[in-house]
Amino acid sequence: AQSVTQLDSQVPVFEEAPVELRCNYSSSVSVYLFWYVQYPNQGLQLLLKYLSGSTLVKGINGFEAEFNKSQTSFHLRKPSVHISDTAEYFCAVSEGVGTYKYIFGTGTRLKVLA
Amino acid sequence: GAGVSQSPSNKVTEKGKDVELRCDPISGHTALYWYRQSLGQGLEFLIYFQGNSAPDKSGLPSDRFSAERTGGSVSTLTIQRTQQEDSAVYLCASSPSNQPQHFGDGTRLSIL
Question: In the 8-state DSSP scheme, what is residue A69?
Fold first, then answer.
């Protein structure tokens, strides 16, 4: 069975500093990988996705993630965060190529400090 | 264009009552998903509808939970004889076939 691990439940970071949110997955088959962001009292918005091709994926709001197959990781990065990036971030993996049934991680709460 | 719409946005009910949560997916999206998000937890998959295929109900936590999707569009998640542990945010998502999911803002369910 597939699983997703987000080891950091909370990440505090100062404004304009870089940030990395970690995501590791386990799977015996090829997968699709996603990062979603959830602002308070809202649903999830897709930040970026890895389906195939280049392992460096760029998303909205200046975020990017790198797929590392050997380390089974898909870490999310941003070189300079803003107060408005404060939110919950979820990593997700699909159960096999061509299906969109997701397994979600438990989320990382990013808190950007002034 | 309209996104995924969920109603009500908030629901407070007494233990033992039945509740119905509604999801209006984006027009034309063939796939529809229900998730449960409990405080401090990730998203727990509940049920998946794809077109006219039989739904994947593997995530429903008990037989008190059921869902239907009428006419391939609107979906209703029903929880019978609610318990306090059912308190959570229930999220609905939809997608075109084999495309990323679009989420609604959820229904916050509180069981007193």
Answer: T
CB contact under 8 A, B106 and A45: no
Q: Exposed/middle/buried for A46, CB within 10 Å: 0-12, 13-18, 19+?
A: middle
Q: How far is B17 from chain A (nearest CA, A)?
A: 25
CA distance A11 to A50: 23
How far, in Å, CA of B99 to CA of A78, rounded? 25
Q: Return the number of other C-beta atoms located less than 10 Å from residue A42's C-beta.
A: 14
pLDDT tens for B34-69 read: 999 987 778 899 999 988 888 999 999 999 999 999
**Residues A90/A36, Cβ–Cβ less than 8 Å:** yes
**Separation between Cα atoms, residue A47 and residue A110, nearest integer Å:** 14
